[in-house]
Design a protein that fits this description.
Two copies of one chain form a homodimer. Chain A has helices at residues 3-25, 28-35, 39-46, 49-64, 78-95, 99-109, 114-121, 125-136, 140-159, 161-169, 173-196. Chain A has 198 residues and is mainly α. Chain A has two domains: 3-47, Homeodomain-like (Arc Repressor Mutant, subunit A, Orthogonal Bundle), CATH 1.10.10.60; 59-196, Tetracycline Repressor, domain 2, CATH 1.10.357. Chains A and B meet through helix 1, helix 6, helix 7, helix 8 and helix 9 of A and helix 1, helix 6, helix 7, helix 8 and helix 9 of B. Chain A binds a DNA duplex (18 and 18 nucleotides) through residues 1-3, 6, 27-29, 37-45, 47-49.
DNA sequence: GTCTATAAAAGGATAGAC
DNA sequence: GTCTATCCTTTTATAGAC
């Protein structure tokens, strides 16, 4: 009867370990330990490491990609949309420090799996791009440059945290966290400013 | 007498495989195959996977970090320095598509090893930061924001290539490569523009 | 220096008892 | 549903012949 409990414990543990170490770096034993159970039970619930990993990746990816919809919401001004998007995106990553690198690394490891991921979110990249073009009043090329700039500025500082906190703050993670918090405001300014002056 | 030849073949193969798959994803067998030798010889030259990996990582990291020096070169204008830095940085990554994610992932896997990496390049992060502050005529805080913005805009589009080429160009890698080429010019504009209008 | 063969260890997966 | 014990494969590492 503790079915849901155990399944949830496994999923929590797997998310933690997979995100930290990636598919290959993570070991079933470690996930079992983290969940407070043994390896056999992992297989009982999820048959194989591959299947367990798939489940986690899908969950994690689905949490981030759909946020692009914020940028299509025509009821808000462009300024507002950018501010909200940046803030929400960065907040998710503050709460899941390993998320960005996990996604990037695993997509590189197995790019072919991406297609199913997209369809499982119910969002088509092409449609989202067109929606942004129309609602931001930009050409499609401008949208692409704009989008990549914004994602770069939001995501990279988290992906590179272990490196940058060392370079910029001599390894003081707390100081680097403040720096990131500050960026929630400065990044939208930076982006919107560049839209005006081009 | 083929000593140097073989060692070099191993290093080339190891760089290739490690960069593509990371420490855990790479297998000694695969590296041996790529080098056209057998596993035993790998161990003869480098004793263990760990030691071989260390050697590669040090090499690769040492190739990128010192480029920050470009930004300290006071004989050039700020505009020039940014243009040169962005172009050189992005060119290195065009030639080594797996480089950015490799470095970010492995630093996260073992952040403690970073200290030796820095010292082995002979560059101290603190000194570089101060040099930039003086020669760019910014406060240290401004330098940090500026530097992270620039690195984000240069590196992330490469790290996320498999994802972004799918979102932006329906998986057409050639089209995405053109997009990246275009950014060698647009990124410096973007950055310099924001410095003026703040 | 380079190879074949093999040891030794780790890790994923299953059988079977409870 | 959960555990212990065990199997099987993969992978790292070494021994020893050439």
């Amino acid at each position: 009867m503790t079915e849901k409990q155990t399944e949830q414990k496994i999923l929590d543990a797997a998310r933690e370990i997979f995100m930290r170490k990636g598919m290959h770096g993570a070991k079933m034993q470690e996930i079992a330990d983290e969940a407070g159970i043994n390896k056999a039970l992992l297989h009982y619930y999820f048959r194989s490491k591959d299947k367990l990993f798939d489940r986690i990746f899908q969950e994690v990816f689905g949490q981030l990609f759909p946020k692009l919809q914020i940028l299509v919401d025509a009821t808000k001004s462009i300024e507002e949309r950018v501010q909200i998007f940046v803030k929400e995106y960065m907040t998710v990553m503050q709460q899941n420090p390993f998320l960005p690198l996990f996604i990037l690394h695993e997509i590189q490891r197995d790019p072919d799996s991406l297609h199913e991921r997209f369809t499982s979110t119910g969002l088509q990249p092409e449609i989202v791009m067109q929606g942004m073009s129309a609602s931001l009043d930009m050409t499609v090329d401008e949208v692409k440059m704009f989008l990549v700039n914004m994602l770069s500025l939001c995501i990279f500082p988290f992906a590179a945290k272990p490196l940058l906190s060392r370079i910029l703050y001599a390894g003081d993670d707390k100081a680097y966290d403040s720096f990131l918090e500050e960026r929630k405001l400065s990044v939208p300014e930076f982006i919107l400013n560049s839209l005006k002056n081009q």
